[in-house]
Design goal:
alpha+beta
């Protein structure tokens, strides 16, 4: 079925304000089209909202027919797609995430990442600001950084995350101890081999051969060979 062309904007169309910095700093970070659609939709929702403070909830977004029809055109269940998309939005520092409790069940709420919203989250966590029907959970934190340390390690030492790399990093977290992952990043940086394929090869080797005393740079210090991880069966997969 052929889609109908958009007929054009009316003369006095309502305008949704978006900060100029979004186009300068945020747009280059976004590679996932669902993430872009989601953040623009949240800007639109909040621009129409009255009251204080202004935020959106996960359940609100999940039940929004406009957003869901926009991002849910894949085989992946739409709730999983939305969760992953919101994770990217928080990971890139566009939104702030706060997990609260509503009648014994978790309620995820999202704020635009500004200094004033950070102060609002602090007040909520300290019990100085109450949201109707919502109470802070124990050890709740506002997430302004990636929800996983491995994401931070990647962005600080290699570069910008992509959805595919993010999935590979999450899988690595399930397979290897956190200390191993940090050590592998350190060793790769020391050898100036800033590639996730190279780091994953280090982890694969440690998983097969063992890792002495959990100390980073075990083989590097002993063998002095920066190419040791690109030999063998999977060596051709590692980018130099």
């Amino acid at each position: 079925m052929t889609k109908k062309l958009f007929p054009g904007f009316p003369t006095r169309a309502e305008v949704t304000p978006i900060p100029t910095v979004f186009f300068i700093r945020v747009m280059p970070l976004i590679e996932d089209i669902a993430e872009l659609k989601t953040i623009l939709h949240i800007f639109w929702l909040l621009s129409r909202r009255r009251g204080y403070p202004q935020f959106v909830t996960y359940n609100e977004l999940l039940s929004d027919p406009i957003l869901i029809s926009s991002i849910g055109k894949e085989t992946k269940p739409v709730d999983e797609k939305l969760r992953y998309t919101l994770q990217l939005v928080v990971q890139h520092g566009i939104m702030l995430h706060l997990e609260l409790d509503r009648d014994g069940e978790s309620e995820d709420i999202y704020f635009i990442n500004t200094e004033s919203e950070k102060k609002i989250i602090d007040k909520i966590q300290q019990g100085k600001l109450a949201l109707p029907g919502l109470i802070p959970k124990k050890e709740v934190t506002a997430k302004t950084v990636p929800p996983s340390d491995i994401f931070s390690l990647y962005e600080q030492n290699i570069g910008m995350l992509t959805p595919i790399i993010a999935e590979e990093l999450q899988e690595a977290e399930k397979l290897y101890p956190a200390a191993w992952i940090e050590s592998a990043f350190k060793e790769a940086v020391t050898l100036n081999k800033r590639s996730w394929k190279y780091i994953s090869r280090i982890l694969e080797r440690w998983a097969i051969e063992g890792k002495d005393d959990g100390k980073p740079g075990r083989d590097f210090k002993r063998e002095g060979d920066p190419d040791k991880y690109i030999r063998g069966k999977y060596g051709h997969m590692v980018r130099r």
